[in-house]
Design goal:
single chain, alpha+beta, four-stranded antiparallel sheet
């Protein structure tokens, strides 16, 4: 019986340490966002993963856009995936400067430029400070042992929902993705050239 209690306590402590370290990493990212410290935000961000996450979302939204008007064959999907990924990567690279990332996380918007579409209506990462994540544990979604998703938006509706994806590195959790609302992704996909 003692061994069972020991295992149960060890499991509870492991889970508490796992989620606690993720929330601590998120709180450090939120503090850097609140302070407007672009260098600290970039230091707490896995830029290649974040870039890949956003590019994949944009390519999928683009495929949905063109699939709505006509049938897209499997070969065309592969070609669009390759071509679209290069276009999306270029767009995301312009979006992920320290200043733009800080503005996106702090204010939930980015102004339109000649080379990037406007992003607006996203919740601020600092809004998480107003939410007691322990009482609203449903905002946290386990993806795999190295990734968690935390919904930032009030709404869970995919049309409106925004989430932050954290990836656990060796000792720390870093921003590895921003799951954008579908309506925002459709706006970005609409700014890409139709083929």
């Amino acid at each position: 019986m003692r061994w069972f209690i020991g295992i149960a306590i060890a499991a509870i402590l492991t889970v508490a340490l796992y989620y606690g370290s993720a929330l601590y990493g998120l709180s450090r990212l939120a503090a850097a966002t609140r302070d407007g410290d672009g260098a600290a935000i970039v230091a707490r961000t896995d830029l290649p993963r974040l870039s890949r996450s956003l590019s994949d979302q944009i390519v999928n939204a683009y495929l949905e856009r063109i699939s709505a008007s006509r049938r897209v064959g499997s070969m065309e999907r592969v070609l669009i995936g390759g071509y679209g990924a290069s276009v999306a990567d270029a767009l995301v690279t312009k979006l992920l400067t320290p200043d733009n990332l800080t503005e996106l996380l702090k204010a939930g918007r980015l102004a339109e430029t000649q080379s990037t579409p406007a992003l607006s209506g996203l919740p601020s990462l600092t809004d998480l400070e107003k939410i007691n994540l322990l009482t609203q544990f449903g905002r946290i979604h386990y993806i795999n042992p190295a990734q968690l998703s935390i919904r930032v938006s009030k709404s869970a509706d995919p049309e409106e929902s925004t989430a932050i994806v954290l990836h656990r590195g060796s000792l720390d959790w870093k921003l590895a993705g921003i799951d954008l609302p579908r309506k925002t992704l459709r706006n970005i996909a609409a700014s890409l050239p139709a083929r």
